[in-house]
Amino acid sequence: LREEKARRRRARRQAELRALALGQGDFQLLDQAGRRRCKADFRGQWVLLYFGFTHCPDICPEELEKLSRAVALLEQEPGLPPVQPLFITVDPERDDVAAVGRYVRDFHPRLLGLTGSPEEVRAASSAYRVYASAGPKDEDGDYIVDHTVLIYLLGPDGLFLDYYGRSKTDAQIAQSVRRHMETYEPLLD
Amino acid sequence: AEKMSAPTMEERKACWGARDEFWQCMDRHADDASKCEKLRRSFESRCPQQWVKHFDKRRDFLKYKRKLETEGYHPPEATGKS
């Protein structure tokens, strides 16, 4: 009976996620090597995605370190598919390909960083309903970008399956991702 | 004007270290900034101006939160209203 209830709860959640269909639509961005990457390139892969910016005082490095540790924990488990760590900037004006390259190399070795034109970046962030708002510039032209702080889990069909806030630890994220992998059913036919 | 590069990981850590030393000094001296001038200058020199402002606001917020947790919330007195 408990199994039946769990199955029904999962089916309800699947229906909710299908209706929400967060992360539909394509994006066309550039990675830190200047290669074109579109959303379809990640089809078939599990992805942990974080939106941030390289001039971020502390939150982005902390969240990216946590994301990197979660990926490393999952790598230690035999039989699990690999997880692609992904960073997308919310500050395309400053975070060009070179800036993103300098930034991502301090984190997980497989961390991919994406940027593009302001329009392309805005399209990607709004597909995931990410809020981003650049603050006022100081006399050096420096500014902070206020933005949603979440790590998104994307399933192999590219749609959003779960999200993790600041209070979730690397171990909690890894455990959640493992559970999703074990119970995964494609949201799209 | 040339785009300013974002701080590197080493620069970030140097900034956070200077911030933490300044905050520890402030904690020890009940937020008397005059007792921590040297560390304040060190903090300001190691962090971008925007980050100094951001961390100052963070400290104010944390203090306010601690105050709420220990003293409770006292709504401001209503101004004379009929």
From TrEMBL, chain A:
GO molecular-function terms, A-Z: metal ion binding
Claim: Cytoplasm is one of the keywords in the record: no
Origin superkingdom: Eukaryota
Any one GO biological process: mitochondrial respiratory chain complex IV assembly
Q: Which residues bind Cu cation?
A: 56, 60, 147
Which cysteines in this chain are paired by disulphide bridges?
56-60
Q: How does it sit in the membrane?
A: Single-pass membrane protein
Q: State its location(s).
A: Mitochondrion inner membrane
Q: What Pfam families does the record point to?
A: SCO1-SenC
Q: What InterPro entries does the record point to?
A: SCO1/SenC (IPR003782), Thioredoxin-like_sf (IPR036249)
| One GO location term (cellular component) | mitochondrial inner membrane
Keywords, in A-Z order:
Copper, Disulfide bond, Metal-binding
Its family remark reads: Belongs to the SCO1/2 family.
Instruction: Output this protein's name.
Output: SCO2 protein
UniProtKB/TrEMBL annotation, chain B:
| Main location group | mitochondrion
The cellular location(s) given in this protein's UniProt record come to:
Mitochondrion intermembrane space
Instruction: Indicate whether Ligase appears among the record's keywords.
Output: no
**GO BP annotations, alphabetical order:** mitochondrial ATP synthesis coupled electron transport; respiratory chain complex IV assembly
- Example of a GO cellular component annotation carried by this entry: mitochondrial intermembrane space
Q: Which PROSITE patterns match?
A: CHCH
Q: So which domain of life are we looking at?
A: Eukaryota
Q: Which Pfam families would you find in this protein's record? A: COX6B
Q: Which UniProt keywords apply?
A: Disulfide bond, Mitochondrion
Q: Which InterPro entries does this UniProt record tie to the protein?
A: COA6, COX6B-like, CX6/COA6-like_sf
- What family does the entry list? Belongs to the cytochrome c oxidase subunit 6B family.
| Record's function text | Involved in the maturation of the mitochondrial respiratory chain complex IV subunit MT-CO2/COX2. Thereby, may regulate early steps of complex IV assembly. Mitochondrial respiratory chain complex IV or cytochrome c oxidase is the component of the respiratory chain that catalyzes the transfer of electrons from intermembrane space cytochrome c to molecular oxygen in the matrix and as a consequence contributes to the proton gradient involved in mitochondrial ATP synthesis. May also be required for efficient formation of respiratory supercomplexes comprised of complexes III and IV.
Q: What is this protein called?
A: Cytochrome c oxidase assembly factor 6 homolog
